[in-house]
Design brief:
This protein has about 200 residues and is an all-alpha fold. It has one domain. The longest helix has about 45 residues.
Length: about 200
């Protein structure tokens, strides 16, 4: 988060003095270059994550459809899992900050609003959408276990499904809490500075 820290410091130090009008264009030009550095860093991280997801998906397909006997239920479970992962990850990548789409050619407040909306979208993704993804993930895994545990007594199968669902629910809940804590520590300070910057620009008009 070095780029974010530098950006925050830049905006903190650019205050109107002695009634002088805030030079928003110069501040935004400098800040945009820092945001682009941050964007490139996040892009590299997301590419590594994407490679990991592709590898994990390939392992799921290989282990479920080539190592063990294939059945319609197993195919349905694998398909459900892969579609759920693909939909969520695509939405996650689409919500990432893209400086090329920020409105910096018109009013300065539009630029700030664009960044704030992006942050709001990222927060909403993990507060709302991630829960649906978690439910889809648990459903897909339980579909797979319907086939894998076919030889077990019904009560044992039910107990196993309940246990697996409980463990996955706890893990997903912990994941949401961890991600929101990271967002609070890394993004919210900058978000607050953006709000303050917006107020300063409005006052300087």
């Amino acid at each position: 988060m070095k780029e974010f820290d530098a950006l925050k410091k830049n905006w903190q130090t650019q205050k109107p003095a002695g009634g002088m009008k805030l030079n928003a264009d110069e501040i935004i030009s400098d800040s945009l270059s820092r945001l682009r550095k941050f964007e490139k860093r996040i892009f590299r991280i997301n590419m590594v994550k994407t490679a990991g997801i592709v590898l994990a998906s390939a392992l799921i397909i290989w282990s479920m459809l080539f190592v063990t006997p294939v059945s319609a239920v197993k195919i349905a479970g694998v398909a459900w899992l892969l579609i759920s992962i693909a939909v969520f990850w695509t939405k996650y990548l689409m919500i990432q900050l893209r400086t090329g789409k920020l409105n910096v050619k018109e009013k300065s407040l539009d630029f700030i609003d664009d960044v704030l909306k992006n942050f709001s979208g990222q927060r909403g993704l993990f507060r709302k959408d991630f829960k649906f993804f978690g439910a889809a993930l648990i459903t897909g895994i339980n579909i797979l276990y319907l086939d894998l545990l076919n030889d077990m007594p019904p009560l044992e199968r039910l107990s196993f499904h309940v246990l697996v669902s409980a463990v996955l629910t706890a893990a997903l809940y912990a994941g949401i809490k961890f991600r929101m804590r990271r967002f609070k520590n890394e993004n919210e300070p900058l978000e607050n500075e953006l709000i303050k910057m917006k107020e300063d620009l409005e006052e300087s008009k």
